[in-house]
Specification:
The protein is of the alpha+beta class. 43% of the residues lie in helices and 23% in strands. It has eleven helices and twelve strands. Strand 4 and strand 5 form a beta hairpin. Helix 5 packs antiparallel against helix 6, helix 6 packs across helix 11 and helix 9 packs antiparallel against helix 11. It starts with 8 loop residues before the first helix and ends with a strand.
Length: 359
């Protein structure tokens, strides 16, 4: 193969900028002082500066579009520095993203100026995987306790349900007391659902994998959620854009996970609230193939930033004594399938929980 010869500096310059535009990540090129020299299209799109002039602007000013005005960017002022930036979702159906900014110094022979460049790489999927692994490590130490507790509760709870059913039947002609017995039986069945969460969580669920048609697989869980929401005076909206999608998974565990996520939304709101259950398809991108997203969003009080990392921890709750295993169990089910689950929330802005499943 022969060597390519650039006859003039302008030819080399054109090749250089063509190379910048061909890179999959964003690039900001700056001189020693941080004054902008060039930015490729990917960086301009991430920063929202496409078509804007770069003269008299510094890379630090532009970077604030990613980090926010109060972020500490000192690590990027030295060669080899790195900073992980979290981009808030731009809309109710948008996704939170993570951008890794890295600095490398350079010497440009044809411009005769020393400087550096900042690379901007979308690392959303690796960042989510990292958080997923951290949660999994915390769960391992808690499974033995959950298993012991479920064994202690299973037998007496079964007897209590049997006695409540007999009592309800014998009081069929006494409406007032029959109503009380019905409430007792409903409370027992709620406890059974909680116990199912303990059993699933403590046993590190082993899915029985089969091809599932999502709309059919979730029909019973969604009907139960709608009934529970109506009882509490809460409106449930469903958006089944990917209702015809097919996945590989365990139908019982999938239904249990969806029921847990929906109950979490219902319990976060008072009468008059509204929550959304949505299915949609996400196109293939760098690092993953086509996905189906399950999204549950509510209008509850939201979650403080310092609590977001703990929301899937067993027995963690911001609702007083309501300390079930719903979200922790949902994480265990997602992990057993190789799915990803995450939460997005701001105090006073409600909560969005997303589960990503390979289509």
């Amino acid at each position: 193969m022969g060597q390519t010869v650039f006859e003039t500096p302008e030819h080399l310059r054109q090749f250089f900028f063509a190379m910048l535009e061909s890179l999959p990540g964003g690039i900001l090129l700056a001189d020693r002082q941080g004054n902008m020299l060039a930015a490729n299209g990917r960086a301009a799109a991430l920063l929202g500066i496409a078509g804007s002039p770069l003269q008299s602007r510094t890379c630090w000013d532009l970077l604030r579009r990613l980090t926010g005005p109060d972020a500490d960017i000192a690590s990027l002022r030295v060669s080899g520095g790195r900073l992980l930036c979290e981009l808030a979702a731009s809309g109710p159906d948008a996704e939170k993203r993570y951008i890794l900014v890295s600095r490398n110094d350079l010497q440009s022979p044809f411009l005769e100026v020393a400087g550096f460049f900042l690379s901007l790489d979308d690392v959303t999927m690796p960042a989510m995987l990292g958080m997923h692994v951290d949660r999994s490590r915390r769960f391992a130490a808690m499974r033995d306790m959950a298993e012991a507790m479920s064994q202690e509760l299973k037998n007496p709870l079964g007897s209590l349900e049997l006695y409540a059913s007999i009592l309800k039947r014998e009081l069929a002609e006494d409406p007032d007391n029959e109503r009380i017995a019905s409430r007792m039986l409903g409370a027992v069945r709620t406890m059974h659902h909680l116990l199912d969460n303990f059993v699933t969580f403590s046993g590190a669920p082993q899915p029985r994998m089969e091809e599932l048609h999502l709309a059919k697989a979730l029909a019973n869980s969604l009907e139960t959620l709608r009934e529970l929401a109506e009882e509490r005076g809460i409106f449930m909206e469903t958006r089944m854009e990917a209702g015809q999608a097919k996945i590989i998974g365990d139908q019982a565990l999938l239904g249990q996970m969806v029921l847990n996520l929906g109950l979490n939304a219902v319990e976060s709101m008072s009468a008059g609230g509204r929550f959304v259950f949505a299915l949609r398809k996400l196109r293939a991108s760098t690092g993953h193939g086509p996905l189906v997203e399950i999204m549950v969003s509510d209008q509850g009080e939201g979650i403080a930033r310092e609590n977001l990392a703990r929301i899937f921890d067993p027995f963690f709750s911001t609702r007083g004594m309501n300390r079930g295993l719903g979200l922790a169990n949902s994480h265990a089910i997602a992990e057993a399938h190789g799915w990803l689950i995450r939460v997005e929330s701001e105090p006073g802005q409600g909560t969005i929980i997303r589960v990503l499943l390979p289509a």
